[in-house]
Amino acid sequence: MKSLAYVAFVGILLAAIPFTGSAQCKNFAKKVCKLELAPYIHDGNYNAAILTEGEDAELFKTFYAGQEYRISICGSESLPPIEFQVLDVDRKLLYTNASRNYATSWDFKVESTQQLIVLVKVKSSENGSDDLASGCVAIMFGLKTD
Amino acid sequence: MEIGSVKRMIRIYSVVIVTVVAIMSCASDKGSDERVRVDADEVISDSNAVYGVQTAKQIFYSLPSPLETALILKRSGAVYNEEILNPVENLSRYNTNKSMALNLGIYSTDLSYASMFDQTQASIKYMSASKKVAEGLGILNAIDNSVIQRLEENVNNREVIMDIISETFLNTNSILEENDRVAVGAIILVGGWIEGLYIATSLIDDVHKADNELIERIIDQKLSLGTVINLLEQHKSNPDVKDVLTDIYALDKIYKNVQISVSEVESVLREGESVTTLRSKNVVSVSPDVFNDLKTKIKEIRTKYTM
């Protein structure tokens, strides 16, 4: 009976892993990333996922003429630096934080409404370890209000 | 049964149960991922998976939130007209998941629009309506009573009110994601986006006399429409999403007659400035007939969602 109870306990723990990761990511986005948008107001959207080093993600969004935006990318402390690039629909590079010491935010405005792609890459760590780090990465947008 | 056999059976059951639970755990995780992203490289070899040589690309489609929609409306010269908003008295009509999700988006846009024009009483009214619909959807903690109280305490501070709205929307989205209900989140966003289009088109009586900037922003929604379709298509196995997608395809058919040509984009950062400008020139055109068709279709869809 003890063995069965142990198995059930392990099973519950395993089943809870995805939800725990998701909840941690939510708290991380709310408590850490959102603060980096100030003084811009967060648009309210939630774009976050658990990424492993070497993985990348893309986000498609339309940005509107006349509106000033701040993109903020933040990752858990366990992750290596995160590179983010902004590309146009033809995938022409418009910005990369790699040339700015992996700055975590970028302020911009568009003269005409544009659909842009935000490409986020979790760099591979340089220590050659077989243990790949995973953590929450959030892409958040701030809006200038005045 | 001998003790040895019993122990062997326990070991076998242990392996089976742990394996099943682990598979369920992975399946649940994958289901969650699929709601927010497309795995472009699903087939990877085991060795690649272990060593991370091949990475899974994740794709997010981000729609303008109700707050961004309201901000764009105001910047484009829109005026405030409470009569065009969805009356809170309609709340009792919304009893299905689909109608509640759509109208949570609609009320969220109405709330953001009212707050952008410092309409405090309307803001509180629409926040209360949003709270009730969110509760109906089982999102119990996204908007609590303290939110309404904070709104009342900050009636003269638009920045704080916008921050409160942003926080409630983030709570709603993240709770839905946490509970593997991202399809519902997509419907909420589409409801809010349709309401923004409805408000904008309702404010234009005569396309010849209307403010150009507001018309331009309505035309610009052709660019967001592609994102709306991609987002919904990620969840089209959900019957409610499939229904909404049918309406969006009908809207897309009309938007196909709206022309937008986009010039090359150039990134410019002037010396001494911290904000980069992405320079480009869009050429847009829409005939009055097509504009009226758009306005009619948007009204038809919005009426279907609110009635």
Question: What does this 3D model show about the protein?
Answer:
The complex is a heterodimer of chains A (146) and B (307). Chain A is of the alpha+beta class and 146 residues long. Chain A is built from one helix and nine strands. Chain A has one helix at residues 2-33, and strands at residues 41-42, 48-52, 56-63, 68-75, 82-87, 93-96, 105-110, 114-122, 134-143. In chain A, strand 5 and strand 6 form a beta hairpin. Chain A is globular and about 60 Å long. With 307 residues, chain B is mainly alpha-helical. Chain B has two domains: 3-51; 66-256 and 288-306, no CATH class. Helices cover 64% and strands 7% of the residues of chain B. Chain B contains eleven helices and five strands, in the order H-H-E-H-H-H-H-H-H-H-H-E-E-E-E-H. In chain B, the strands form two sheets. Chain B has a two-stranded antiparallel sheet with strand order 2-5. In chain B, helix 4 crosses helix 8 (182-202). Chain B is globular and about 45 Å long. The model of chain B is unreliable at 1-7 and 12-56 (pLDDT under 50). The interface between A and B is large, with 68 and 75 residues.
CATH architecture of chain A: Sandwich
Structural class of chain A: alpha+beta
Distance separating the two termini of chain A: 66 Å
Please tell me the total number of domains of chain A: 1
Average of pLDDT of chain B: 82
**Which bin fits the share of residues in helices of chain B?**
55-70%
What sort of overall outline of chain A do the alpha carbons produce when their principal axes are compared?
Answer: globular
Largest interface here, residues on each chain? Answer: A-B, 68 and 75 residues
Poorly predicted segments of chain B: 1-7, 12-56
Total number of beta strands of chain A: 9
Distance between the termini of chain B: 66 Å
Number of strands of chain B: 5
Strand arrangement within the widest β-sheet of chain B reads 2-5
Unreliable sequence segments of chain A: 12-19
Q: What name is given to the CATH topology of chain A? A: Jelly Rolls
Radius of gyration of chain B: 24 Å
Shape of chain B: globular
Work out the helix count of chain A: 1
Major sheet characteristics of chain B: 2 strands, antiparallel
